[in-house]
Every structure is written in structure tokens, then in C-alpha cells.
Design a protein that fits this description.
about 140 residues; 7 helices
């Protein structure tokens, strides 16, 4: 079993889509290991997205992510990282495949409803950031 980090972003929480996204998560065979509703501070958003600190979108990204409530999750299943990426779809909803969460619920590349770890190292960092003590590999 593998674990990954997932997030339901402020745009999706604000629009009342959390239940639909959580239902899809369970329908895809994920087990929710941990879940929290958070209102990120600007400092938390900057720490979480520190890898992007030199990118031009860093300021707007961290401002957006600290603008509303998010749901952070630790998910588990076989090939969790890859499967969650497939379920989410491309970062840009306009380029996402039909049936993916971002195609269905994303409004723009910035407001794309969900986030997920892209590799084991990222998953380990992101899980540890929001859920200290949750390991990358489940039982």
C-alpha cells in the first residue's frame, strides 16, 4: 500500500464541492487515513509551496491558498500517487481529460479544485507538513 497527499483547494470548498470530491476519492478505492479542514496562514502556504518560491506565480499562489478553507488528506491504496494524479487530471482544466476532477470542477489553472503529490519525495514532504507521523507506506 502506498500513501499520497491530496488537497481540496479553496475554490472547490467555497463552491460546496468537497462532498462530491470525497465521494469520488472513496469510489476510486482510496482509504482516507487522515483528513483536516484548515485555513492556511500565508506563512503556512509559503512553507508548503517553498519549492516554488523563485517562480513568478509564488505570491499569487500563496495568497490564493491562504484565502479560504482547504481540506487536506492522507490517502492510501495501491499506486496511490499515480492513481490520484490520474483522477485529478492535468493542472489546466482546459487540458484535463474528460471525467477527471479538474475537468469537471476546475475553473482555471489557478482555481483547479485539487492538489496532489507528484512523486514519493513530494508525498513524504507534503504528508509530513500537514500530518506529522503519517508515513508514506501504509499497513
Amino acid at each position: 500500500m502506498e500513501r499520497t497527499f491530496a488537497m481540496i483547494k479553496p475554490d472547490a470548498v467555497e463552491r460546496g464541492l468537497a462532498g462530491k470530491i470525497l465521494s469520488r476519492i472513496e469510489g476510486e478505492g482510496f482509504r482516507v487515513v487522515a483528513m483536516r479542514l484548515v485555513k492556511m496562514t500565508k506563512a503556512q502556504a509559503e512553507g508548503f509551496y517553498a519549492v516554488h518560491c523563485e517562480r513568478p506565480f509564488f505570491g499569487p499562489l500563496t495568497a490564493y491558498m491562504s484565502s479560504g478553507r482547504t481540506i487536506v488528506l492522507a490517502l492510501e491504496r495501491e499506486s496511490a500517487i499515480k492513481h490520484w494524479r490520474d483522477v485529478m487530471g492535468a493542472t489546466d482544466p482546459a487540458k484535463a481529460a474528460p471525467g477527471t476532477l479538474r475537468k469537471e470542477f476546475g475553473e482555471s489553472i489557478e482555481r483547479n479544485a485539487t492538489h496532489g503529490s507528484d512523486a514519493p519525495g513530494t508525498a513524504a514532504f507534503e504528508l509530513g507538513y500537514w500530518f506529522p507521523g503519517v508515513s508514506l507506506h501504509g499497513a
